[in-house]
Design goal:
Layout lengths: L2 H21 L1 E3 L4 E3 L5 E10 L11 H13 L16 E9 L9 E8 L10 E7 L11 E6 L10 E10 L14 E6 L6 H14 L10 E5 L2 E5 L8 H10 L1 E3 L6 E5 L4 E5 L3 E2 L2 E5 L2 E5 L5 E3 L5 E2 L10 E2 H10 L4 H13 L3 E2 L1 E4 L1
Parallel strand pairs: 13-22
Antiparallel strand pairs: 1-12, 2-9, 3-4, 3-6, 4-5, 5-8, 6-7, 7-8, 9-11, 10-11, 13-14, 15-20, 15-21, 16-17, 17-18, 18-19
Length: 357
């Protein structure tokens, strides 16, 4: 084989191998966030006007007082008796969320409004300018001002509505991701992937990736199953954003996923994450029997017999996924599958966190 043909063959082999290796690694930005980056919730109490007689009505004293105060601010003072039939206004709670990346003054975000008194519907109304603050009672600095025409998304819930781009920010809200020493940053591993192994692996990969910049010193240290503390190398201290961007581009092998079962009886959904194992147990449920961990593990009932794990030895751990697959083959209703999983968890035979929505 000529030298050129050899090089071409190597390139083909590299191209064939590279995708599988890349797909096997997960970038840190997908499983980690930077401490200090957090959403900021804004709230305020506002007034919707222009309703077609579906507002709070004059029987609600707070609404009457608020309307009277609003008229007074407009140099149009009125008496309670003069607004007795004002059914076209409603008091609402206004909420908005600033994303964890932060925003600057002048940017806009959506807000949501919900009636809090006795309004029947907010459809067709308009929110008067409403100041929004954080939940910190010690700091009532106005962060944004909400207002504008509202849109009812769900006809079945006409007392809840949204205003697209209805909040103008009047203050900068930035994420403070550096420690007071200005040279430390902490990665937070999301709860679904947090474990001592994942934290150790994240630290190992970062130390390996930045060996040259750190002069072979250890800069990343796991401080718990869900956090890794990183010392920013000297050459990046004037530009920590670039350093963090490079850190988050690093990848680790598929991180451990916490064994978890999520049930949603309302939608009939069962989600299994991680390696969820079950102990030997016999379950008698309605017209069938589930026997797990026997010499010949079977699920018996109407129709053919179905092995829970085909071609497996006696000592192999039993996986919940195999049980669910076997139940699905017998067309066991999802409600019954959920009942069985609940019983496994209640008896301590299900080795995973169980979450019901």
């Amino acid at each position: 084989m000529s030298r050129l043909a050899t090089i071409f063959a190597i390139l083909l082999l590299t191209c064939a191998i590279w995708p599988s290796q890349a797909e096997a690694r997960v970038r840190l930005e997908y499983i980690c966030s930077v401490q200090g980056q957090q959403e900021v919730r804004l709230t305020g109490l506002g007034m919707i006007v222009g309703l077609p007689g579906t507002g709070d009505g004059a029987k609600n004293a707070p609404t009457v007082r608020a309307l009277r105060a609003a008229m007074a601010r407009l140099n149009q003072p009125v008496l309670d008796t003069e607004i007795r039939n004002a059914d076209n206004v409603a008091i609402v709670m206004v909420e908005a969320t600033i994303p964890r990346t932060g925003l600057k003054r002048g940017q806009k975000i959506d807000c949501f409004v919900n009636a809090v008194m006795g309004a029947k519907s907010l459809r067709g109304g308009r929110l008067l300018s409403t100041p929004l603050t954080t939940a910190d009672a010690r700091n009532q600095l106005v962060i944004g001002v909400a207002g504008g025409a509202i849109v009812v998304d769900d006809p079945a819930r006409p007392t809840s509505a949204r205003i697209t781009q209805g909040v103008d920010l009047v203050q900068d809200v930035t994420a403070l991701f550096l420690s007071k020493q200005q040279d430390l940053v902490t990665l937070l591993i999301d709860p679904a992937h947090a474990s001592f192994w994942t934290a150790s692996e994240v630290a190992r990969v970062i130390n390996s990736e930045f060996t040259f910049e750190s002069a072979a010193k250890t800069i990343a240290k796991p401080t718990g199953p869900g956090s890794v503390e990183i010392q920013i190398p000297q050459q990046y201290r004037q530009n920590p954003v670039e350093f963090i961007a490079q850190v988050l581009e690093s990848g680790i092998d598929t991180p451990n996923t916490q064994a978890r079962v999520i049930l949603n009886p309302r939608t009939g959904t069962v989600v299994v994450t991680g390696e969820v194992e079950i102990s030997p147990v016999i379950i008698s449920h309605k017209s069938f029997v589930v026997e797990i961990g026997a010499d010949d593990p079977l699920l018996t009932g109407p129709g053919p017999f179905i092995g829970l794990i085909e071609n497996s030895g006696r000592q192999s751990p039993q996986q919940l996924k195999d049980l669910v697959d076997a139940l699905n083959k017998l067309r066991v209703p999802t409600a019954d599958v959920i009942d069985i999983i609940r019983e496994l968890h209640a008896t301590g035979k299900l080795h995973a966190e169980l979450i019901e929505k």
